[in-house]
Sequence to fold (1241 residues):
Amino acid sequence: MTLAEDRTRAGAVDPLTLAVVQGALQEITNEMDAAFKHTAFSPIIAEGNDLASGIYHAETGEVISQGEDSLPLFVAVMQDTAKHVLRSVAGRRNFEPGDVYIVNYPYFGGTHLMDVKMVMPYFAEGDLFALLANTGHWPDIGGAVPGGFAGHATEVYQEGLVLPPIRLYRAGQLDEETLQLILANIRVPRPRIGDMHAQYTSLRLGADRLDGLVRRFGKPALRAAIAEMFNRAEAVMRSHIRDFPDGVYHYRDHMDSDGVDPDPLNIDLTLTVSGSDMTMDFSRSSPACKGPFNSGLSSTVSACHVALKHVFPDVPINAGSFKPVRIVVPDGSFLNAKPPRPVSGATAEVSQRIIDVTFGALAQAAPEKITAGCFSSTINVTVGGDDEQLGEYVLYLYFGGGYGGHSGSDGISNGCSLQSTARMTPMEIYEQRYPYRVRHFRIRENSGGYGRHRGGYGVDMAIELLRGTAVVSLLGDRGKFPPRGLLGGEDGACTRFQVLHKNGQVYTPPFVTKDERYPLQAGDIIHICSAGGAGYGPASERALEDRLADRLAGYYPGREL
Amino acid sequence: MELHVGIDVGGTFTDIAINRADAGEMLLYKVPSTPGAPDQAIVQGLAAALGEYGLAAGDIQRLSHGTTVATNALIQRRAGKVAVVTTEGFADLIEIRRQARPRMYDVHLDHPPPLAPRHLRFGVAERRRADGVVHKPLDEAAVRALAPRLTAEEVDCVVVCFLHSYAFPEHEQRAVAILRECLPAKVHVIASSGVYPAFREYERFSTAVLNGALMPVMHDYLVRFTAGVAGLGIPADPKLSQSVGGLMSVAMTRELPIRSALSGPAAGVLGAAYRASNAGFGDVITLDVGGTSSDVSLLRDGCPREVQARDLAGFPLLLPTLDVNAVGAGGGSIAWVDIDGLMKVGPRSAGAEPGPACYGLGGTEATVTDANVVLGRLPDDALLGGRMPIQRALAERAVAALATRLGLDLHETALGMVRVASATIVKAIGTISIERGHNPADFSLFAFGGAGPLHASDVARALDIRTIVVPPHPGILCAEGLLGADVVADFVFSTLLALEDAATAVVERGRGELLTKAAQWFERERIEPAARRLAWNFRLRYRRQNFELSVPFAGGAFDLAACRQARAAFHQAHERAYGYASASEPVEFVSLQLKAIGVLPRPPLARLAPGRPGAAAGRRRAMFRLHEWHDTPVYRRQDLGCGQELAGPAIVEQLDTTSPIFPGDVARADEWGNLIIRLA
Fold:
């Protein structure tokens, strides 16, 4: 008999039970992440940490816990996925033990199509107690270009296979017909069976662990504890917002283009703090766009919460922490995509920029808590080919860049995307698996915006196709509008992408940061430079010893330091 | 009379365990550590211990030593000045790392700066491809031309790091030879493939740079240490402990100091393995609770588990190390109320100074030790056999202050503190068991360290573990572990390869290379042929998976039959770990690992005399469940006779720990002096 059990027999939830239950729920989702990663076949899941595991409320779908290795952006997205499955099942049929639904529908509870979710009802002693769900990035989901990042797509159908919530497992058995339908629509299908196994195994593990928790505490105590977790997270969030000065803060940034129209897209945020409430209004942002830079509402909302979590990192992550924040995104906005708008840039690019824009707005009230502008573009490069030795392949590259300088120090160099915890795949593995040679991979000099605290550096990488032919697609941003300095700091360097042909010709995509199926021959080189972070405070205030260190290291060749 | 000595240097104390090989008797000695020069405490402690027990230094035939010199040098950034010579175009690798931030949701916290700054990292023309093709030969003149610059910079060590050197080390080896020729003799020159030849360039380079930075530090220390030991007239060739669990010679430690970096916790695991197997427990979770942190690990069939990579002071380390997970919860951990109103315990600790409130040394914040005093689980007069006086009133005052903030009563708060600390430990055990495919309920809990036995019961209950084992000397198990350790060296052959029939030739070549390396090592370490053992392991996965599983290999020629057997064994291992296998899925070879072992005879352990069952030495009120007080008998550990059983509630006290037996549980002293607690 534990203390918690002692107490809950008396019908109350005390803070000690809560601490133990909250920790146990966190550990379960961590274990789900680990099982998924360790068995996944997709390198983007295993190395890129492009996955998430969570536990969701049985009636509302609200997130109760998400794994600490999970991609942060999924935190509010996945609760909409859970809601979507709940709604789609409601009135049609009942959940049965052993059911698992698969879904990647992007407009509600979705991101881009490559993020494939599985949702499993969890029954405790015969009752639906919670939903368990996870998501992982598949290297391909069909569609016009290998890898799914079709830079010029104008409809979701060009981006790949769309899966509304459908049952993939019944009574714990994989539905062979559904499986075959999926495999028949994607490239390099075979390893995806392994990913599905991995995803399913992770859900099963979560269910087993929840069984143990239910045995230990009983359902009523757990339900009460979860409700109390929500209450407390909301209270903490409110106390932080209350500490922020009341006011209306406005910030606007531009994305290069949507890949189809040459015009920039505006993300325009009016952030209002009033007492313990916050409103984030994106009404003045650009309307829905033709190209793949539309963002589903769940993805937009989630990006806002991830941004706030960076500013208030001690707020526990669950649905309660979302409640004090109202997010306004009108229908018709590119940040509230409707079918059949293309969306592949939503997760990879738009969400990061929403975070950067939120930082920009909050920095007006409290610059010491935020950073200067961040690189905010992962530059998704996908190369598809069929190699004589290695077979058909899809090579996916994504890049880190510079974070903005901040009140404490210089920005982080080659940091992962703001909404992720991704790691780059080692080059020795790339070269073993794909017919490419990395020519160089280094700090991009002169990329960090100078300042009292300079921005972090972007990276500079060149990779050469060794044999055969291939097509490269590009979906990035920050090619035209640099990360912006704060309090007089300089801007960071913009993203650059080029193909250096063997014959000496240099190709720059007309849309700078978007392209589709550009052909490569053996000996051609893809050259990528990611954006640098912006500076914080004027360059004239940079300490002498920091200048000398910059000069000695040669980070700014050609510049007088 | 032959003596075997184990010396474990901790942050506070240096523990010395002396085993008299004739009697199996274990003599223990503790002296305060001397962190500035750890060898001082060792030499003084050894001299004092020999004097106290009337033993002769000349009888010491074996001396094993666990050191934190490497770890401390890294944490305090007192490492040597390192330069890197690397493949042109890749000199920034150790600075740009692999994207992930040190802490999620933190845009401010950066990684520690690289140990070799940019102006000391030099690219030279050379390039091997993944398949070994020489794309660009090594520009030897360019390597030679670096020498004046490196000399002028007065670097302590030059680390050569080339791409794909894990499989094709020739360019690295040539560059090392050239630099050794051109640089002053005191400059260390090493190759990344010489430290640990596994693929993943950033991690391999980082590991090699860590090693290089530690070489001068370790060199100086070993000179002092060996001189001090020899000065006492000790004939034994000292051995040092490794983070993977075995021992290594002084010469090998000089070359590969990085292998000693996490050796402290590893020695504890070895001690646990030695004691637990001896008592007949093979599947064991070890729990070492100290003042500021707890270390947990898992033994299967008496064998510790290894991990292939981990973080060390903010740098990645690509080397096998024991799978020990540390969390910031220990006796001195401070309880606090978080922003959401929930109680948290640790990671902040009151340390040795001021220590828990009950020490009366000025601490006012409630620690786990204070909670245990309030609950009567710890004595309320003194700890450490009377050496550390305790003031119960101070413990109560500290816990009461926290209770007021939480709106709970004193004892609810104290019990809550102990359980929240235990929950942190439970979470850490989840990582090394459940996340690796093991169910903790199938294991026993082996509790040691000053506070391990105190918390074992709460931890075991939360994990459905039924049996707890408390060794005879929980406070010095690390030093004991050093006595029972073998001399080992790890070698690896790594390359990505489909594990199909066509692969046998490549793997067989790798096996041959490893055998040669092991044979050379046996010779160099002067290990008797009869004491030589080899343990082989494959690291395998399904093609396109990104994490491998270990599959044991019996050794012998790697032919078609062995290849098929390895595949089948992998499918089984995958099924066991994750609940499914895909027999039709291609299996990928990642590496073949060879552990060369020089077996040292285990020192005998003394049996407990079958004396008369001891009576309780006293009684005190103690709380195990909320608001249920028990008038609890307190036994002295040394009074317990072999086979004696104690029904809970009871408390067993000894110099280095306290073991509460909960109501309904039964403890028995086994013939080796272990306390075996069966949970109700």
